[in-house]
Amino acid sequence: MLFKWLKRRRRRRILEEPFPDEWNAIIASNVVHDRQLLADQQRRLREMTQVFVAEKNWEGCRGLEITDEVKVTIAALACLLVLGQNNVYFDHVLSILVYPDPYVAKDVEITRAGVVIEGGQTRLGEAWWRGPVILSWSDVLSGGRRQQPGQNLVFHEFAHQLDMMNGRTLDGTPPIESQQHFQRWVKVLQPEYERLVHACRHGRRSFIDCYAATNVAEYFAVITEVFFENSRMLSSHLPHVYDILRDYYRLDPAHWSDY
Ligand SMILES: [Zn+2]
Q1: Measured in whole angstroms, how far is the alpha carbon of residue 223 from the centre of its chain?
Q2: Average pLDDT, the chain
């Protein structure tokens, strides 16, 4: 209780500072989704970004300098993911490690539970329970600027973090408030996942990358990317999947304005 009160007070203090103009310029350049948001959503995104930047430990790897641009871009994208949810700041994520590019990781313990590592030996990103989120800056940028259609590394890695918030395991299911919504979630997404696995095994490609067929955790992370980055395609081809994610994220990107 005291901890929550202190946290709320600390966040109020963070928000007493005005949002810097330079940070608006960073969002304009690197988080193009912002242009599609309503004014109150943009305001909320900036508040959440301020808190997120202030509360995380930031560490540059392989010579990458942690600048405001790095922090604000990653924070705004992570917060965009949970913009519709109530006070989700990924409190269990303490640190963000950023490499300049996809990196070859060494000496990383990959056997403990709650670890997910993307991209085989050369990695784009990683998500660890109570550990750091590790990201490749070049992939963060290309996602925020929508240079790789349908892909967004920050959404992907932070979707894994949402997944871990439900019992700390990667089971493709984030915390879901109502039992009814949970039952709908399983009823819709499980057969869709199995359909995708079957299609990918037989070489049938669709707008959902076959990386989603790796396991249910990757399925949730990849359809989260599709939900935000290819929302109209998802809404028209798999409306029941779109609706489940719309109800969970409490956002409706298929109906956001064009920019
Ligand atoms: Zn993943």
Answers
A1: 11
A2: 90
